[in-house]
Design a protein that fits this description.
Elements (H helix, E strand, L loop, with lengths): L28 H13 L6 H15 L4 E6 L10 H22 L3 E6 L12 E4 L2 E4 L13 H4 L4 H22 L20 H24 L12 E6 L3 H6 L1 E4 L4 E4 L4 E4 L9 H6 L6 E5 L5 H11 L8 E5 L6 H15 L4 E4 L6 E3 L5 E3 L1 H17 L4 E7 L34 H12 L13
Parallel strand pairs: 1-2, 1-14, 2-5, 5-8, 8-9, 9-10, 10-11, 11-14
Antiparallel strand pairs: 3-4, 6-7, 12-13
Helix pairs in contact: 1-5, 3-5, 3-6, 3-12, 6-12, 9-10, 10-11, 11-12
């Protein structure tokens, strides 16, 4: 098993001595260093207190006392940092969370894939069109999407713009939440007009009406206003901590906490492509105090997962590790049990979450990437079933979605087909569930309540 270096050996730049995957080739190293230095002097985007509160809530989810809802864009775009786009994303996450709260009968941890999800891993360093080869688009934090050399050359100044957009996004979310936008007494604030006619929306409004009646009844009988957890909610940000110079720049040692914190986000995760136990990303993640997640799929062995747990959570700290499983609808029942057994053997507490998106990506005959809603739903249902049968507990879902009226995934209540994709396909990277499909998924998850609650360590 890989040796676990002493914590005293770590600082935010020790990753630079390791092999770095998914790292862009900047033409000017000095410019990168200058940007990282500038970012390190800017105010943090999140606070250590928020991070530790989230870690405590994730520890409760590991024990089956909460449920994690994590969702947002596959890759944020700087141009979509608008009040409407942010509010709509918050609306669908709030609506999904109220459906899950009603169905699962437990508090929901709301985490948005936002305020920093600007970098994406790529399967190749370059792409070729009509005989022209250019660097791959790696997200707005790295380069630009248009297929020109000027746009595709990695630009370190984009890290500064990413920081600014992330701060604007999260500050607006905080303002909405603190201003009463998330008040359960007024869920009409979360409606999106273009799905009022949907059967899914009708089912949702029935749930909201039932909750509102319950609140009214409580307040009438008690003579008190039901304020705790109804007027505002905790809301957290997460992103894949892919671009290590950006993550390093906002990583700081806090004397009062006696530890290093990544203050660019509450909840960073490691993707499958950067989960090498001897690689730079695992080296970076082992030193920060944030709760972290690891994406795992069919390519990960039990031994590999156990090594990652030993390195990233050697003390078995509750709330520290979330495992986001992305097997695909056809492989989850074969692959997930071995992962559960591997974690059980370590004795480490983890939160099991299901990512039903990435393992179900496919392409149409014309080369358009899409996902079938039936496969997405099937993977979630199979994951619940596997955990129940093994005496474990699925404590969260991780979904790529948008509050926009897009047509990127087929199926769902409206029965979108491949022909419908052309109407409103807006993603520059991966296909997302639209508002209606996301709400339908939440309703289906809510119906999965009643499974046995057990320790997430599966001990």
């Amino acid at each position: 098993m890989t040796r676990k270096p002493a914590q005293s050996d770590w600082h935010p730049a020790t990753w630079q001595a390791q092999t770095v995957s998914q790292h862009p080739l900047y033409p000017d190293a000095a410019a990168v260093e200058s940007v990282v230095a500038s970012l390190s002097r800017l105010p943090p985007i999140v606070t250590s207190g928020e991070i530790l509160t989230l870690k405590r809530q994730l520890a409760e989810a590991q024990r089956g006392e909460r449920f994690l809802l994590q969702g947002g864009d596959c890759a944020e775009n700087f141009d979509n940092c608008t009040s409407d786009a942010i509010a709509n994303k918050l609306k669908i996450l709030l609506q999904m969370s109220v459906v899950l709260l009603y169905g699962l009968k437990k508090p929901i941890i709301r985490v948005g894939r936002l305020a920093g999800q600007y970098a994406k891993p790529r399967s190749a360093d370059s792409e070729t069109r009509d005989g022209v080869t250019l660097p791959s688009y790696r997200g707005d934090l790295i380069n630009r999407h248009p297929f020109t050399m000027a746009d595709r050359v990695p630009d370190p100044s984009l890290m500064l713009r990413g920081y600014e957009r992330a701060a604007l996004t999260l500050n607006f979310v905080r303002a909405l939440v603190d201003g009463g936008f998330a008040d359960l007494h007024h869920p009409e604030n979360w409606d999106l007009a273009f799905v009022h006619h949907s059967p899914v929306a009708e089912h949702y409004h029935q749930i909201v009406h039932a909750i509102s009646e319950s609140l009214d009844f409580f307040e009438l009988v008690s003579g008190q206003t039901a304020t705790s957890g109804t007027e505002r909610v905790d809301f957290y940000a997460s992103h894949e901590g892919l671009h290590l110079p950006y993550e390093q720049a906002q990583t700081r040692f806090l004397e009062k906490r006696r530890g290093w914190f990544n203050l660019s986000t509450h909840f960073p995760w490691i993707g499958m492509r950067t989960a090498d136990v001897s690689g730079a990303h695992v080296e970076y993640y082992r030193g920060i105090q944030n709760p972290i997640a690891i994406k795992i799929g069919p390519a990960m062995s039990a031994e590999w997962l156990q090594e990652l747990i030993a390195i990233l959570n050697p003390q078995g700290e509750p709330g520290r590790l979330t495992l986001i499983c992305r097997f695909g609808a056809k492989k989850v029942e074969q692959g997930l049990p071995a992962m559960i057994q591997a974690v059980r053997a370590t004795g480490s507490p983890v939160l099991w979450s299901c990512d039903p998106m990435h393992g179900n990506t496919e392409s149409t005959a014309t080369g358009v990437k899409t996902r079938r809603f039936d496969n997405i739903l099937a993977e979630v249902q199979s994951s619940f079933r596997v955990h129940r049968d093994m005496g474990s507990y699925l404590g969260g879902v991780h979904v790529e979605l948008t509050g926009e009226d897009v047509t990127e995934c087929t199926g769902g209540a409206r029965g979108l087909t491949e022909t419908d994709l052309a109407r409103a396909y807006k993603s520059t990277v991966d296909p997302r569930l639209n508002y209606e499909q996301a709400l339908e998924l939440a309703l289906s998850i809510a119906h999965a309540r009643g499974q046995p609650v057990g320790s997430q360590s599966t001990r």
